[in-house]
Amino acid sequence: MAEQLPEYRVPLKDMQFLLNEMSDDQGTDGVTNEDLFFILEQAARFAEEELVPINQDGDTNGCVFDNGKVTLPAKLRDAFRTYAEGGWMGLSMPEQFGGQGLPERLSTLVGEILTSANHSFSMTPALTMSASRAIIGHGSDELKETYLEKLLTGTWTGTMCLTEAHCGSDLGLIRTSAEEVSESVYRIKGNKIFISSGQHDAADNIVHLVLARLKDAPKGIKGLSLFLVPAKLKNKAGVWNKKNEVHCIGIEEKMGMHANPTCSMSFEGAEGYLIGKPNRGINAMFTMMNEMRLGASLQGIGLSERSFQKSLQYAVERTQMRSLGGVKAPEKEADPIIVHPDVRRMLLTQKVLAEGGRAMAQFCADLLDESHKPGADKERVELLGLLTPIAKGFLTDTGLASADLAIQMYGGHGFIKETGAEQLFRDGRASTLYEGTTGIQALDLLGRKVLANQGKSLLSFTKLMHVLSKKTSSEKLGDLADTLSGYSKEWPQLAKQVGSKAIGDFEEVGAASYDFLMYSGYVSLAYFWLKMANVAQELLDGTRHPNGETFDRDFLDAKVKNARFYFERILPRARAHKEMMLAGKASIMDITESQLIG
Amino acid sequence: MAEQLPEYRVPLKDMQFLLNEMSDDQGTDGVTNEDLFFILEQAARFAEEELVPINQDGDTNGCVFDNGKVTLPAKLRDAFRTYAEGGWMGLSMPEQFGGQGLPERLSTLVGEILTSANHSFSMTPALTMSASRAIIGHGSDELKETYLEKLLTGTWTGTMCLTEAHCGSDLGLIRTSAEEVSESVYRIKGNKIFISSGQHDAADNIVHLVLARLKDAPKGIKGLSLFLVPAKLKNKAGVWNKKNEVHCIGIEEKMGMHANPTCSMSFEGAEGYLIGKPNRGINAMFTMMNEMRLGASLQGIGLSERSFQKSLQYAVERTQMRSLGGVKAPEKEADPIIVHPDVRRMLLTQKVLAEGGRAMAQFCADLLDESHKPGADKERVELLGLLTPIAKGFLTDTGLASADLAIQMYGGHGFIKETGAEQLFRDGRASTLYEGTTGIQALDLLGRKVLANQGKSLLSFTKLMHVLSKKTSSEKLGDLADTLSGYSKEWPQLAKQVGSKAIGDFEEVGAASYDFLMYSGYVSLAYFWLKMANVAQELLDGTRHPNGETFDRDFLDAKVKNARFYFERILPRARAHKEMMLAGKASIMDITESQLIG
């Protein structure tokens, strides 16, 4: 038995299993799974060798703000340059703009790896790619030509400037203003907060995408326009070194993610360029936002995986008490704690959340690739729309639960900075807050993606669940298939029940939304777990031919066992959420504000 | 509507409700509830004026370790002296030793107030009182005479020295040694870690209670003895300024609780005195430990209360989006977020956990008073034994959930240190780790307090549930009474089911223990909520005469409504825990260690 496990090693075998056996997309434009896996191995090496070792240093030393300049921890800055120069930034971005044109399921895995290895590091690449997506989707040819290659190569980086001190979830309140000074050139004025990577010393220029309001624009969300505002402009000689009126006026002291600067930005009549149409900024922003939400869901998965490995490392090393089933390590004064059932319960919880979430993310990645193609199937695009708030809301929530379990696994040592367990939680804590809080995801899911859509997308997913439960042939998985089949009927029924209450009383949507989201998350993951268990069981039984690499029986058998753990030990939480969502709004809304204040 | 709520104000009305209407003990030794409430108001003023304002400063500045000396944040040190000199330390300790002899239900409320106001501050008083309890229960007359008055007046403070680097939960592994040098004098050698308040500059002397092993003592837990080891000894002139060989060799960098030093202590042949009998240290330690566990449960309650108030303050101030039920604050650009159902769900969750937990703690406090009396009823003592791991495990777990919700309520601002929401979580995070992790509480509950006791104590509690559900007369509460009645039957049945599986396979106990603990917690709080709602409803209906102060109808009505929220929106979680505990050990234990490692 290996006693010293690494701090984090990329779960390559599980990733290969998903690439080879779980995707319908087996070879895009001549790129084989072997090609993808080869690239993945390089990403793994980079993460393990360059990012993991500097993670704690970044937490301790953090970013420094001095006189308008932000300095990253030097090791992290160097790692970013290595990453960008290695050509990693634009992995799944279109080749015509300087990307690598590889499928999303590869960049999704790489995204997870980065966040597992070093949450702070992962922020700048993710934001830069989201900003690029908005430019690709809505920018003029000139903007594309001028900015995309620099962004996709990481020479420059990007940001999203939405939040202001008085508005976060409610973007309709944005006050930052834009005034046209000449055709396609605007002056941007206003203050933005919580701008991740808003200023730093790892790139030559920073391209801000800023939501602002044109003079005389309508009030609210329909009066917002999106602008591209570079920190540096081109001077007359064609050199990008002319300072724009974009200033970082401070960085936040945060709970975690110390190595990524969260900047307060002041736009003081900065030169900017319209992206898309006037007053339609929110549309362009939503393109970006949805990809960012999927990106944040990877942080949840990465957090569960890293927390699992962090816990596992300790569970095999730390000896404490004897097994309830009899002495396991007679040569030691106590058994390693991995023998204790409650320790295993925690480990397996983290593991099934990580692997189930990863399978879900791979499914979303394939849908994302489809949605980027011209003439994409509407049903598939809407299915992605349904899964996006579930992935973001549920996987970040459970990712934090995994990180919290890592602290718990370490006992008192989990509270000590040196062990690194508590950093995982602190770094990950923002993932349920930014890109729309869990509450916002829940409203988006139930209100927009389910009820406003008459449950159509939900039915297209529950149909997949139903089909999977029918085609589950192994007797070993029969009871799980029955359970999934039950949920495939119950889920849309619950939506209907809540929906009929909500007719004429939208507060019923708000009162049910969080529990509906969590229910949806647990049930979705049950689908992906049964799907994995099915494939694994077929490979074990020899009724399925592997698409490439043959997986060892231990790995496949673990998949089947872990699916059972998920169904028996995690999925029952959906029962509680069902009961709570059906309770209705009365017990929440009947109490008056003054009774709450007391 | 008050828009600026205080950071924290002591929930005096709720506390008065519990003192007057929920306790069977209405007047101990001539001390009336008015007397208790008067004292409580003084404690509230101290907490609000002295402890709340210095809480953030303590986090920022922390403790300093320099050359063996630990310096507390100066404001906290001064506050401790004020507290001690105000006579607060020995509130419920026996008068004969210098305490005030007041009932536990008062000191329990004060304990909660301290932890709500300033978690770091609350540590030293709590530890000092637990150490004192062990001396009272097991020390010689000479030890009592020499140390208790100093401790109960806070002139000196106390610690518990259990943990060593290689042993936390498993105290049987303790290596610190003790050698008798003369009658009743021993030399203590060894290293202890995680010693809260092990060194500081707020008291003249520190009295360590140290678990150590006598020469030739049996292996394991039955070879441990407890020693009293003062940091300073009396010199020949009778002055306590002779240094003992007790050294602080460092303090931990922690996730939170920065204003309380967590010390590594080195005992280098220090002079110590046996408490109780040789090799019976664990008995004395358990006296102390059980009281510490109840003390830690107060931290969970305090955390829920403080998190509720922190969230409430923001929910009435922060405006964001319009109510789903129509505009509520037309004069503002958006409605205060307290109008949103999901925000209320979070607020009410924190509120019912705090108030339900407080009622449970009051019940335990009365049992504790009874248990301190000679000839205490065995059934009542065992009932306290049953409730102790539930209170510790469940209330700290849910306290952290409340603190996590506070971060969530603040959205992105919750991640920023300045707002103070994240500090609550960081400070509270140790509460599920020390004094026995949640997993240890769960094993203690299911293994020792339920199964080893043939469910007797559990039945004495479910009998109370049954009686309460029968005597619930108001139609308004009829459905809640039925629900509670169902749980009063189900709970012992579940214990029986798990117990029969566990015959011959103790791992079944470990596999079910955590879910059994959480189930027990949710069900216990349902009892206390129905009990409060019953009293409130009777007072509203005029069928009950108040024991003192008349409570306003809004307060009583809120109690009834909150009980319903608890039953509809929190208690269903017990359903999930039931299903998970009955799943058995297979899906946890079938997977091999090498499959977990992958």
TrEMBL record, chains A, B:
Q: Name it.
A: 3-methylmercaptopropionyl-CoA dehydrogenase
Listed EC numbers: 1.3.99.41
User: Which PANTHER family does this entry report, sorted A to Z?
Assistant: ACYL-COA DEHYDROGENASE, BROAD-SPECIFICITY LINEAR ACYL-COA DEHYDROGENASE FADE5
User: In this protein, which residues make up the domain named Acyl-CoA dehydrogenase/oxidase N-terminal?
Assistant: 39-154
The prosthetic group or cofactor this protein requires is: FAD
Please give the family membership noted in the entry.
Belongs to the acyl-CoA dehydrogenase family.
Catalytic activity from the UniProt record: 3-(methylsulfanyl)propanoyl-CoA + oxidized [electron-transfer flavoprotein] + H(+) = 3-(methylsulfanyl)acryloyl-CoA + reduced [electron-transfer flavoprotein]
Q: Does the keyword Flavoprotein apply?
A: yes
